[in-house]
Write a structure and sequence with these properties.
The complex is a heterodimer. By secondary structure, chain A is α/β, with parallel strands linked by helices. Chain A is built from 11 helices and 5 strands, in the order ααααβαβαβααβααβα. In chain A, strands 2-1-3-4-5 form a 5-stranded parallel beta sheet, sandwiched between helices. By secondary structure, chain B is an alpha/beta fold. Helices cover about 50% and strands about 10% of the residues of chain B. Classes of the chains: A alpha/beta, B alpha/beta. At the A-B interface, helix 4, helix 7 and helix 9 of A face strand 3, helix 9 and helix 11 of B.
Chain lengths: ~220, ~350
């Protein structure tokens, strides 16, 4: 199978959320002599980017597809990373969690899976994360982006969520060091809501968050 | 006509002086009574009192018997709820912590005698006594395909739903459908007459059309067909579902549809037509930052789309606590006034 055919087969499998077919395509690539590094950087990363773009434009795209796409991409990436001859260079680093008082972790998982397959180092802070924890972790891990997921209106707009993260960044003189992105259902109902709570960006879904976050990393990273 | 009669007229296509105007002011009741959320939700009488005061103040048509959504998880063994003074309580203890717990999950034989039902029952007793003859009493009941998210977390449920093992997935769905059937019967027996069927997986934006047809629709039939669809309102947790309305009408026979603010209301109304009640729902997340005039304008826009031909209800979505009181007042006033047929 040619590289172009392998790419198309893998891409279709990811888009169709067919995990078995995606893994079969990767196995075929290994048998064709591609190295794990080539598979990640020439197959998985471009296919994830293309899939993100296609899903974002597809009016019939759905949450299940986002979940499965991110799951497949991150599992394939982890499988290949174990076989790398040396640790890969990462694009950047993100600390991610759900906002204070919010226990809904699905969006965070989709975003994390997507980012891992784009060679972004993801520090997962879990659920119900305080503003202080977000900022401390971003400093400790030298992250470029703080990603805050909120599924409930009061955790998205409340004083202990993104608004407090912004206040801490300002009071500690850290403006310019981090970008803050938010996501979750409330932001779909008011596309300007992210500005009102002090975020730099938002994403409508977990898959498009991958693209927005990598753009934010490039803004910050020298 | 009483609000209950106005609702019945709208649902059946009979003449009425105005549209029904529904509003869900749930957490606002605690502030009204000067209680913390935890203390407020500890007693059904607090919730009933909060509902009656909210209705008295704003003049909308309905009252709610819902304490908080996590009550359903408590009926199935949840031991911890996370309260917030800013919004709705969250389930903080998952009943299903590993797939082995699915076999151990027990569905109460008689929900009305379960200790976790007692405050809901008390709330319903008061609401029924005070306004049951004149006003609709709403209940919120989670579908079998959505309830597992509350029992094991959305992340774990999506994984089981989409990746299996299928036998465990189906065992959990069977138990959740049985719970739904018993819960809806308990609500009806206690006097609730508007039953919000919360089925977020019943919208294509969650699972796509193929999975909707092959996986979700059959389980919705298991939920609903034994007890019938009297009083049932199709609701997908504020997600748009226009693409499935026709199929839901044909296969489930549901008569009322709570349309997402993100959906095309005109398209929904055209699809539902005279076969059911179209509920036009305001984007109440934007109401946090709107002025009263912007709120009134949006009410007029929705009513302008939906009122023609009757069979229309004006409703709200999640009504966050952060909405200014002036906007709530403006919304209800405008819906009652502009929603007049005279």
């Amino acid at each position: 199978m040619s590289r172009a055919e392998l790419f198309r087969t893998y891409m279709e499998a990811v888009f169709d959320t067919d995990k078995a077919a995606a893994f079969a395509a990767v196995r075929a690539a290994l048998e064709e002599g591609m190295t794990p590094e080539q598979i990640v950087f020439e197959l998985v990363v471009p296919a994830t980017e293309d899939t993100m773009s296609a899903i974002t434009k597809d009016p019939d795209a759905n949450l299940a597809q986002h979940f499965m796409t991110a799951q497949i991409a991150s599992e394939v990436t982890e499988w290949m990373l174990e076989r790398f001859s040396q640790p890969p260079e990462v694009l950047g680093r993100v600390v991610i969690g759900t906002s204070s008082g919010d226990l809904h972790s699905l969006g965070k998982r989709i975003v994390s899976g997507c980012l891992k397959s784009l060679m972004v180092d993801v520090i997962d802070l879990g659920v119900n994360v305080s503003a202080e924890q977000f900022v401390e972790a971003a400093l400790k891990h030298e992250a470029q982006v703080i990603a805050i997921s909120s599924m409930m209106v009061h955790t998205a707009t409340g004083e202990n969520g993104c608004m407090k993260v912004r206040k801490l960044i300002q009071s500690q003189g850290l403006e310019g060091q981090f970008r803050v992105i938010v996501g979750g259902a409330p932001f779909r109902f008011d596309e300007e809501l992210y500005r009102k709570i002090g975020a730099d960006a938002w994403a409508a879904d977990g898959i498009s968050a991958g693209k927005v976050i990598t753009d934010l990393i490039r803004e910050v990273k020298p | 006509m009483t609000p209950l009669e106005i609702l019945t007229a709208a649902a059946t296509g009979q003449p009425a002086p105005r549209i029904p105007v529904f509003c869900n002011l749930l957490d606002q009741g605690a502030r009204e009574l000067g209680l913390t959320q935890k203390d407020y939700y500890a007693k059904g009488e607090h919730v009933a009192e909060g509902q009656l005061r909210m209705r008295e103040r704003y003049g909308h048509d309905n009252v709610w018997s819902l304490l908080y959504v996590g009550k359903e998880a408590e009926l199935l063994g949840c031991q911890e709820i996370l309260y917030s003074e800013e919004g709705a309580p969250n389930v903080a203890d998952f009943v299903i912590k590993s797939l082995d717990d699915i076999a151990r999950l027990e569905i109460p034989e008689d929900i009305s005698s379960h200790p976790a039902w007692s405050e809901t029952a008390q709330c319903l007793r008061i609401l029924k006594r005070e306004v049951g003859a004149t006003h609709p009493i709403c209940a919120y009941i989670t579908s079998s395909t959505a309830l597992p998210a509350m029992l094991m977390g959305m992340e774990a449920w999506m994984q089981l739903l989409l990746m299996g093992p299928e036998d465990l997935r189906d065992e959990l769905l069977r138990k959740c459908a049985l719970f739904f059937q018993r819960e809806v019967a308990a609500y009806r027996a206690a006097g609730a007459n508007v039953l919000i069927y919360s089925t977020p997986f019943g919208c294509p934006a969650f699972v796509g059309m193929k999975r909707f047809r092959e996986l979700i629709l059959p389980w919705m039939k298991v939920d609903l067909l034994p007890g019938g669809v009297e009083g049932i309102v199709y609701y997908c947790g504020m997600a748009p579902f226009n693409a499935v309305i026709e199929q839901v009408q044909q296969e489930l026979g549901i008569g009322a549809y709570y349309i997402s603010p993100l959906a095309d209301l005109a398209e929904a109304k055209a699809t539902i037509g005279q076969k059911g009640l179209t509920c036009g729902v305001i984007d109440d997340i934007q109401m946090i930052h709107w002025t009263p005039e912007q709120t009134r304008a949006e009410v007029r826009r929705l009513c302008g789309i939906g009122m023609g031909g009757g069979r229309f209800l004006f409703g709200t979505g999640v009504m966050p606590q952060a909405i200014p009181e002036a906007n709530i007042r403006a919304m209800v006033e405008e819906a009652l006034g502009f929603g007049s047929y005279s």
